[in-house]
Predict the structure.
Amino acid sequence: MAHLQKNQDVIYFSGELTARTIEDFSSELKPILKEKANASLRLDLTEIEDIDSAGVAFLDEVIVDNSTDDRSIRLINVPDDIQDSIDSFTTIDLPEEAPEARRGFYEYLDDKLRIYRKNFISLLFLVADVFYWSVVGLFRWKGQRKGSLIQQSLLIGVDALPIVVLISFLIGFILALQSAAQLRQFGANIFVADLIGIAMLREMGPIMTAIVVAGRSGSAIASEIATMVVTEEIDALQTMALNPIRFVVVPKFHAITLTMPMLTILSNLVGILGGFVIAVTYLQLSAAAFFNELLTVLFLKDVMTGLFKSVVFAWIIVIIGCYFGMQVKGGAEGVGKSTTASVVASIFFVIVADSILGLIFYFGDNI
Amino acid sequence: MNPIIEVENLTAKYGETTVLKDVNVQIFPNQITVILGKSGCGKTTLLKNIIRLYQPHSGRIKIFDQDVTFMEEKEFNQILRKIGVLFQNGALLNSLTVGENVSIPIEQHTKLHPSLIHRVVRGKLGLVELEHAIGMYPSELSGGMKKRAALARSIAMDPQILFGDEPSAGLDPITASALDRLLFKLRDHLDMTMVIVSHELASIQRIAERIIFMDDGKILFQGKLEDAKKEENPAMQKFFNP
């Protein structure tokens, strides 16, 4: 039970001074400290039965907050066991905490720019490393695990088949459905084949496949590498004189370069199939008319530009995943953060690359 | 002297594998009791059964004279507030600073003003000589610093019992010895009861006031370290004279 008594400049504490009773002591002590605002005070602890670290912190705060050049607050008659606790937990003798450094706008900007510059340089080094070892890896298999290309191809390519097929079908289906109503108004039903064919081959096939692979495999690459960094597996590889890029990243790079175009071709075909379903059922086109129109409008160039894009997207996904994995900081939380960041960045850069390539191919056609 | 922890006929299993067989243990207050034995003998399993991280297959566990074996979670949480646990790898939350790690239980279980909580945290970190690391993240700490930060967190609520799972494992002899001295200081100044799992002979010799020797899921010996060394049991002889 908290209890305070005052006798001139001595305040007598009694009972238990713990986290449970601090509020009582505080409410009793405040008016006394106010009343004796300029007097030096002694806190008599003879009757204190128990004290915990919160009690010690309370006494410290009373002493520090109320001591001035002209006024001192000190403890007297402290029993030995109470003194032991005070000695253990007091913060009065600890060095003062350094105030948090406040940075101005330009310092903040400068710090950020330095970080971006450093990150950009390390990304360039990583890109160079990945391409160098990927080319070397084609001719010299030493330094890579046996069967890793097949294993990674299965993980990145084959396991992604169902979701790529489903999404591509739905995209083709929706594109055709949305455009059908407009085309019908002009009696231009047949052009749905043109629209679906060009849209899927040039844009939607490669980009939807890339988004699915970024979400599935890009995140897996980032989290796998980040976990390897956190658990010092990457360091262990280096100590075994194995290049982590060559050992871990190159098989993924080869696998994704191989499987992304295949997934894209499949996505194109299934997307066209989705459009075909609408063309036949909703626009009453015959299958022959649909495919005749499709063949007249599509050129090999359309297929090739889509496949070229898919390879560029594949490289973006694997390099971004690898970069964020390698940059991980901290433990489990860091792995989560780098995985999320890698997916967001992959999708962003895939769309940026798609825009740039789209412009190049468009103006290339018209030159 | 009444035991502060009593384990009666405890049997623990992982799936079909029996890890502890009819274990009977008594822990007495204000002592450092070391549970020792070779790797895989069931030390950590015993510890984790006592603090109910694992549910025993059969038997009874009493802490502060209360049967906690099948105690309601709400009721057991009250017991847990009087217990601190120091994990083998520290188990600090990596997303929080050292100061935040220590302040979590105080913020959650008391109504103290934030300024007072900050003082308590500084006090605890000062005790383990880590007051300068209050704003650092666990990933920025060395192994020894992590252990000390974890110790500060484990005593955040001024526990009556401190459990430690191999606190000095993986530390250099100087840091390990400093950590052991710190445990003694806590025991002396705060009248804490400590239950430490260890197989590090040097550390055991420094801190053990009472030992519980385990082998193959059974208790072979409970008593003083000097008496244990005189035992003729081959497993114990081999442990003390490797």
